Amino acid sequence: xxxxxxxxxxxxxSSLIQGLEYYKKVDGNSPPVxxxxxxxxxxxxxxxxxxxxxxxxxxRKVGKDVAEAVFSxxxxxxxxxDVPKIGVxxxxxxxxxxxxxxxKDFFLVDPSQKPVDVKKAIxxxxxxxxxxxxxVGSEQAVRFYAQEALDAGVAFINCMPVFIxxxxxxxxxxxxxxxxxxxxDIKSQVGATITHRTLVKMFADRGVKIERTYQLNVGxxxxxxxxLERQRLKxxxxxxxxxxxxxxxxxxxxxxxxIGPSDYVPWLxxxxxxxxxxxxxxxxxxxxxxxxxxxVEDSPxxxxxxxxxxxxxxxxxxxxxGGALISASAYFMKHPIQQFPDDTAREMVEEFIAGKRER
Length: 359
Description:
With 359 residues, the chain is an alpha/beta fold. Helices cover 33% and strands 20% of the residues. The protein has a 7-stranded parallel β-sheet with strand order 3-2-1-4-5-6-11, sandwiched between helices. The longest helix has 21 residues, at 298-318.
């Protein structure tokens, strides 16, 4: 069994918890199951993952069973699985900077609900891994939970673009504690970042000189509403831009590459639409332009990666491997401590799963 705690019971957590129920009957890696990169990792199936603690700040979720909370407003991702009660109630975490000016009317906080002692709650639950799903720009809150993970003696999976696993001093703290961390900023199963990375690498591998590129994203969930507060986007834009720049043979000047959230469209709900454009020159210096439109449900796209990250973190715990996991972070995250091409990162993950030491 793999016991996990989650902070932030939003759409991504909803898709993850629905998925644990949806795929609970999957056994063995053959045949491949649609939606999963690995049916089994290190002997662990999805039904082996158990939520034992959860933290949120919204009064519509605090105090409810996790199975009920993940369908509570303002969550809006698609329901693809019924989730029976799991007997774990959502506990109140500290707000800190977790709520933006643009979302203060959508996340409802009851001042009479006092935050719990997070470290104590994690330890009493028996959790082994803490998963961070806090909103973009929650710099103080993410660092708070990273420290609570260290103090509680659990692994940390940072799905958001606040730099922990990719920050040298933070990674060293996890290494010294003998605790694995995977991060930062989840790279979705088939999302805008992985698609953009793949396309620019193809251009470069085929001898095309890339001159300009952009990626614009719109969506209707609270993540996009949160990102309307532009000062919260510094690390998000850096994470997404670096993920693409790292796949280019020569970095593009800052004024020739634009990657980041564009706008909030309420009626899209958890649907995300990405517009990617690449301009370059091919044989004979002849111009070439590629325009791509990607339309995805945002949160299940994240959950398809997190189920593998959880199991890799569990293997690292069993092997007493502390610090940032280079292979898992490079394959699962946009802003790892060390970037690799995706095909190389995938090979590294397979080697790690097979028991080989990290590079």
